[in-house]
Design brief:
- It is built from nine helices and eleven strands.
- By secondary structure, it is of the alpha+beta class.
- The strands form two sheets. The protein has a six-stranded antiparallel sheet, with helices on one face. Strands 2-7-4-5-11 form a five-stranded antiparallel sheet, with helices on one face.
- α2 runs antiparallel to α3 and α8 packs across α9.
- The chain is globular.
- The protein starts with 5 loop residues before the first helix and ends in an 11-residue tail after the last helix.
C-alpha cells in the first residue's frame, strides 16, 4: 500500500499493515498516536521523532520503533517512509519507549516488498511469510543511541525543547537557571535528579544530534564550525564518543 491513510485500513484483519508514504521536502506530522505499534523506516532523508519523554533522530536508512498509543510528533526532511503498523498483541516484546535501530539489507528488501501488498494480503502465501519474517527481523535489531531524554517537569522540558529547536553553544547553566528562576546550584541539582546528567552534558548531546539534518546539506567541516568545534576532527571525535558512529555515516550508508 502506498500513500494510504492508516485510518482507512486500521481495522483490516492483518497483524502487520505495510504502508509506504512520500512526504513534501519539509513536513511536520503534528502530535498524534496510533492504536498499533509502528515501525517507521526512512528510505530517504532524516526524521526527528518527539514524544513527551525525549527526541529520537532517525538518519537515512534507519528506523524507529514507536510503541502503540504513544503521542508523538515527526519532523520530516526529504523523507519517503516505509511503515509497518502492527497489532500490539502480535509483538509483546515491542519496547515501551521509542528506539532507533539500524536496518539490515534483508529487512530493507522485505520492507520494499511489503509496501506492494494489498490490504487483505494472503496470509497463507508469500505475503504472509514476508510479514512474519519482518517481525522476526525487527525483534533481532539492536538499538542505536540517537536519542536525548526530556525532563518530566514542564519548565525544564520547555527549556530543553527550545534548545533542540535552536541549539546554541553559547548557552550556559547560568542562563538556563535564570530562565527557570532558580539559583545555578539548585537548577543543576534538579536537572541531574530528573535526567541523571548535567545540563551541559545534555546540551552537548543535543547539539551533536542536531548535526544530523545539517549533514544532509553541509560538509563535516561546515557543521563542526557551526556547532562551535575547533576542528572537524574534534567534532567527529565527540560525535563518535557519544553515538558509536562517525557523523559522516549518519546520512549515508557505507
Amino acid at each position: 500500500m502506498r500513500n494510504v491513510p492508516l485510518a482507512e485500513v486500521d481495522r483490516v484483519d492483518r497483524a502487520v499493515l505495510p504502508i509506504g508514504t512520500d512526504y513534501p521536502p519539509v513536513h511536520v506530522l503534528d502530535w498524534h498516536h496510533h492504536r498499533r505499534a509502528q515501525f517507521l523506516y526512512g528510505a530517504t532523508g532524516v526524521m526527528v521523532v518527539e514524544t513527551a519523554d525525549g527526541t529520537w533522530t532517525v538518519p537515512t536508512d534507519r528506523a524507529v520503533l514507536i510503541p502503540p498509543a504513544t503521542p508523538h510528533r515527526v519532523r520530516m526532511l526529504d523523507v519517503s517512509t516505509r511503515s509497518l503498523y502492527v497489532e500490539p498483541a502480535a509483538v509483546p516484546w515491542w519496547p515501551a519507549d521509542c528506539r532507533v535501530v539500524d536496518v539490515t539489507p534483508l529487512l530493507r528488501e522485505l520492507l520494499l516488498a511489503a509496501v506492494e501488498f494489498t490490504p487483505e494480503y494472503d496470509l497463507a502465501g508469500r505475503d504472509g511469510a514476508v510479514a512474519a519474517l519482518l517481525l522476526h527481523e525487527i525483534a533481532a535489531l539492536a538499538p542505536l543511541p540517537l536519542h536525548v531524554p526530556l525532563p518530566t517537569s514542564p519548565d525544564l522540558a520547555t527549556l530543553c525543547r527550545a534548545y533542540l529547536d535552536t541549539p546554541d553553544v553559547q548557552v550556559t547553566n547560568t542562563e538556563w537557571a535564570s530562565r527557570a528562576s532558580m539559583s545555578e546550584r539548585a537548577f543543576t541539582r534538579r536537572f541531574r535528579q530528573e535526567l541523571n546528567q548535567s545540563p551541559a552534558a545534555w546540551r552537548l548531546k543535543a547539539r551533536l544530534l542536531a548535526s544530523a539534518p545539517l549533514l544532509r546539506d553541509h560538509t563535516v567541516t561546515e557543521v563542526a564550525a557551526r556547532l562551535g568545534y575547533s576542528s572537524p576532527a574534534a567534532f567527529t571525535a565527540a560525535f563518535t564518543a557519544s553515538f558509536g558512529l562517525a557523523p559522516s555515516k549518519l546520512v549515508q550508508r557505507g
